[in-house]
Write a structure and sequence with these properties.
Elements (H helix, E strand, L loop, with lengths): L1 E5 L3 H11 L6 E5 L10 E4 L7 E4 L5 H11 L3 E2 L14 E3 L4 H14 L7 E9 L7 E5 L4 E7 L12 E7 L3 E12 L2 E12 H17 L6 E3 L5 H10 L5 E6 L1
Parallel strand pairs: 1-2, 1-4, 2-3, 4-5, 5-6, 6-13, 7-10
Antiparallel strand pairs: 7-11, 8-9, 9-10, 11-12, 12-14
Helix pairs in contact: 1-4, 3-5, 4-5
Length: 252
């Protein structure tokens, strides 16, 4: 797989490290930037001809990257979820390749599809800010722990009706994700909780890189897609990249 990458910030730089650790990556072409990695697979490029997928964390120039990717008929992946540059893209255009719209939503999609009709689904994440003193209680893996949360963005448009989306402000370098799905099973009411806690930039890099790798293998159709459109492939790539998930299972 040959990846054209525009990395202007820490998330893009972390994603580059994740991509270089993937054996299927034959080459990474840095757009407008010199490589300091010392890896012979990395070079500086100005033309997208011959590359399999384009990835950019440069929010200000997404329209230009989209036009270039469209001209060459290759997928474009961006970490922002506010990047729709045309109502009818003619290439796979993956948006929201970040911990909330990517990892948290895909974990929820994975859990919900295990059941025909989940009774309840909760998708939660942390975001930078002063912790709340009241709200809805949430538990994230350590070192984040217990937090109060409030209603957050709908990070999974295809979620079952009634799904709760919760955001919990927290200070420090860590990001937490939590998914809880309740469903009836032959053994009783099953409650499965998945949790993630890790360095914010590390998780951001994984969330971005996993979507790039999935798009590079043709996992996403033409049009605007969130990572959840191919959540199985996306999560597989994230796990290989180092995503660690804590699981708690309860029967009631």
């Amino acid at each position: 797989m040959k990846i054209a990458l525009e990395a202007t910030g820490k998330i893009g730089s972390r994603a580059a490290r994740v991509l270089l650790a993937e054996r299927s990556v034959e080459a990474i072409g840095l757009i407008g930037r010199r490589s300091t990695s010392g890896d012979p697979r990395v070079s500086t490029i100005t033309d997208l001809a011959g590359w399999d997928v384009v990835a950019s964390d440069d929010i200000e120039h997404i329209k230009r990257r989209y036009r270039q990717a469209s001209d060459h008929g290759i997928p474009l992946v961006v970490p922002t979820n506010q990047a729709v540059v045309t109502p009818n893209p003619d290439i796979p255009f993956v948006v929201g390749a970040n911990p909330r719209f990517g990892l948290a939503a895909s974990l929820a999609a994975h859990e919900c599809t295990r059941h025909e009709s989940p009774m309840e689904a909760v998708v939660a994440w942390t975001e930078p800010g002063r912790p709340l003193r009241r709200g809805l209680p949430l538990v994230f893996p350590q070192p984040i722990g217990n937090l109060w949360a409030e209603s957050g963005d709908d990070v999974w448009p295809q979620a079952p009706p009634g799904t709760q989306f919760l955001a919990a402000p927290v200070e420090g370098p860590w990001t937490g994700l939590a998914v809880r799905v309740t469903a009836a099973t032959p053994e009783g009411v099953e409650v499965r909780t998945l949790g993630v806690a890790d360095d914010s930039y590390f998780l951001g890099g994984i969330a971005f890189a996993a979507a790039v790798l999935a798009a590079g293998t043709g996992a996403y159709p033409v049009g605007v897609n969130y990572p959840t459109a191919a959540f199985g492939t996306y999560l597989e790539r994230a796990l290989k990249a180092g995503l660690e998930i804590a699981t708690f299972h309860e029967l009631r």
